[in-house]
Amino acid sequence: MNDTATPHRIDLAIIGGGAAGALTALHLLRHAKAPLQVQLFEPASTLAEGIAYATPAPQHLLNVPAGRMSALPDQPTDFTDHLRQVDAFPQDDDASLAGRFVPRRHYAAYLRQRLAEAGEGSPVQLQVVPQAVLSLRRHAGAARLELTDGTVVDAGHVVLACGNSVRPIPLAGADALPHHCIAEAWDYDGVRLLAGEQAIGIIGSGLSMVDSVVALFAAGQSGVLHVFSRHALMPLPHAHGAPASYDPQPLLAMPLRTRLRTLRRHAREAAAQGIPWQSVMERIRPLGKALWQTLDDADQRRFLRHGVRHWDVHRHRIAEEVHVQLRDALADGRLQLHRVRLQGVVETESGLRLSALSHGAAVQWDLGALVNATGVETRAEGLRNPLLRQLLAEGIARPGPHGLGLDSQAAGDRLIDADGNADDAIGVLGSLRIGTLWESLAVPELRQQAEDAARHAVRELEAAMP
Ligand SMILES: Cc1cc2nc3c(=O)[nH]c(=O)nc-3n(C[C@H](O)[C@H](O)[C@H](O)COP(=O)(O)OP(=O)(O)OC[C@H]3O[C@@H](n4cnc5c(N)ncnc54)[C@H](O)[C@@H]3O)c2cc1C
After folding, report:
1. pLDDT per residue over 368-384, tens digit each?
2. Average pLDDT over residues 217-224
3. Residue whose CA lies nearest to ligand 1 atom number 37
4. What's the pLDDT score for residue 1?
5. Ligand 1 atom closest to Cα of 68?
6. N or C: less crowded end of the chain, CB within 10 Å?
7. Measured in angstroms, how far is the CA atom of residue 102 from the centroid of ligand 1?
8. Separation between Cα atoms, residue 335 and residue 341, nearest integer Å
């Protein structure tokens, strides 16, 4: 850091320009009445993509129907209005467009379009800075940020929207593999380039695995795809069906076991009326945060140890057409799912050899390449983002409940430091809040968090103006 330079002073820094940072900027542009100086720091070349919406592949679909992806909580048709404006899916009527799982590439373009429009009438001066923030320290009443190029910026308020971190591949020997035989599932081009005649191993069986499978098949993969997982549970499909009509509120007062038993009973009763279990899950969708926060500490731990995988596959579902593709590939053997404990991987003359324990027996697979589809890193100790490591190391942040993400206020979104104090000038949103909120990943949660963070900053900054 250059101590002699006078830091540039701004009102608000948004750190991260994925969907969450872009949503925060959008709400700020809409709500501010005063000429605030705002900088959004994002090293990627294209705004609003982050990890989820950077994929150009038409096979990579949103896993939330278009009708629920509006950036604006008070205007639920805003995303489908955008799709109409750009003439996507002209054959769909309003209802089928709202229910459609559209390619994810449409989403970042939508956010950028809305940002540009909101910027036109807003007094806010928003500047996108193509730099990562390396450190954040409190300094003379401001948050002092150091950027990758050494620039120093002082911000009155900060919103941390650093998003998802990749989980390292849990496999001894993977680090020593040559680069051409291993790819991260979120490196969409890298995965596509692996396609060929050789068998490929995919570590992890969740949504990132689904992305990799559909991308590899679309790129001409003819070798078998082997999916390795400790539990061998794959995401389940969405379903069109009548809504379930039970009252979910009593669930909040129940301990975990009774809750799950009650949910299963609701699913059986719904099935008896021809209503899919997915409708039963949809009923509790708005209660995601409350369902987590009303579990006591022991039940939260029990859920993390025994329930989370089953919860994920029922809760984070995929479009029916994608599920059909996976089911067909499983049926004809092009896709094989293995429940294993991975042991290690070594390079061989023709590719690599993966060893694992399957039902206690040692098994090996000869593969051409591996994909790391283990998903989002939620453990604070596993976060590799230099800024987040610095915040944790210096006690400006502390791990969230159960060591998940960063600790933040349950009501409100302020970052909590190592002494348990909430920092009024630092808000945090998205997957970093998972330990506090549990449901804190998808756009229906992010847009509300982004609006709340923007409103908080506007209120505080405008109140402090002369
Ligand atoms: C593969 C995938 C598919 C998904 N599909 C859907 C879906 O269909 N619908 C849905 O609602 N949700 C979906 N999600 C959930 C998803 O997490 C959110 O919708 C959203 O993309 C999260 O955005 P984010 O900005 O919080 O995180 P990210 O997308 O991870 O973006 C964070 C950004 O912050 C930047 N950054 C990080 N550290 C710094 C730093 N120190 N300085 C500056 N910039 C920094 C990064 O470069 C990145 O661009 C999906 C998630 C994944 C991983």
Report:
1. 999 999 999 999 999 99
2. 97
3. 162
4. 41
5. 11
6. C
7. 18
8. 19
